[in-house]
Specification:
two-stranded antiparallel ribbon, alpha+beta, 1 helix, single chain, about 20% strand
C-alpha cells in the first residue's frame, strides 16, 4: 500500500555562531541609552561648578590685587605720611586720618579726604572685570579689641571684599557671593 517514507534520525543542533537575539539587542540598547542620558544630565551641573570656581578665583585675585596695592602705599612716621588711611566705620571707604596728610604720587591729600586708591568700585568700575565690585576697609589695630588679637597703634587691618553674581543652571537668580581677604599691615 503505502510506501514507507524516509525519516531522518539526525537531531538538529543549534549553531554556536548564531549571534544575539532581538530581545538581547534591545535590552543592551536600553542600558546604553539610560547610561548616556544619565551622563548628559550631569553636564550642566559640572559646567556650573567649573564656572563657580572660576568666578571665586577671579574674585580672590581681585582682592589680593588690592591688598598688594595697600602694602605699597606709604604709611610712615618720619616724615609723617598716612596714605593707608582708616575707615570711619564698616561701611565707609578709608580716608586720611585727622591730623595727618597723604602725599601720593606728587598729590597731597588733606585729612578727612578720601583716598583714591581705596575708593569703592562698582560692578562696572574694574577694568576687564565687569560684574565684580570691590571695597576696602581699614581698621586701626591700636583701638581695643585690636585686630585678630593684636593691639598695636602701628598696625592696621586691611580687609578687601569682592562681590559678584554667580551663574546658575536654572532661570532663577542666585544670591550674590562675596570673597573677603584680610591682611595686617605694619607702619614703615
Amino acid at each position: 500500500m503505502f510506501a514507507k517514507a524516509h525519516v531522518s534520525t539526525k537531531i538538529r543542533r543549534p549553531r554556536k555562531d548564531a549571534g544575539f537575539t532581538l530581545p538581547e539587542v534591545l535590552l543592551a540598547a536600553m542600558i546604553i541609552i539610560i547610561a548616556f542620558v544619565t551622563l548628559l544630565s550631569v553636564i550642566p551641573y559640572s559646567s556650573a561648578s567649573v564656572q563657580s570656581g572660576n568666578q571665586i578665583s577671579t574674585a580672590t585675585f581681585l582682592a589680593n590685587q588690592k591688598l598688594e596695592e595697600a602694602k605699597n602705599v606709604p604709611w610712615g612716621t618720619a616724615p609723617s605720611n598716612d596714605c593707608l588711611g582708616l575707615s570711619a566705620n564698616a561701611n565707609a571707604a578709608p580716608s586720611v586720618p585727622a591730623g595727618q596728610t597723604c602725599t601720593l604720587g606728587g598729590t597731597v591729600i588733606a585729612a578727612g579726604a578720601a583716598l583714591p586708591w581705596a575708593a569703592d568700585q562698582t560692578a562696572t568700575a574694574i577694568t576687564n572685570f565687569n560684574g565684580y565690585s570691590r571695597n576696602v576697609r581699614i581698621t586701626n589695630c591700636g583701638v581695643a579689641p585690636g585686630c585678630t588679637g593684636i593691639t598695636d597703634a602701628g598696625m592696621r587691618l586691611v580687609t578687601v571684599s569682592v562681590t559678584f553674581q554667580p551663574m546658575t543652571t536654572s532661570s532663577t537668580a542666585a544670591a550674590t557671593k562675596t570673597v573677603t581677604v584680610s591682611m595686617v599691615v605694619a607702619q614703615r
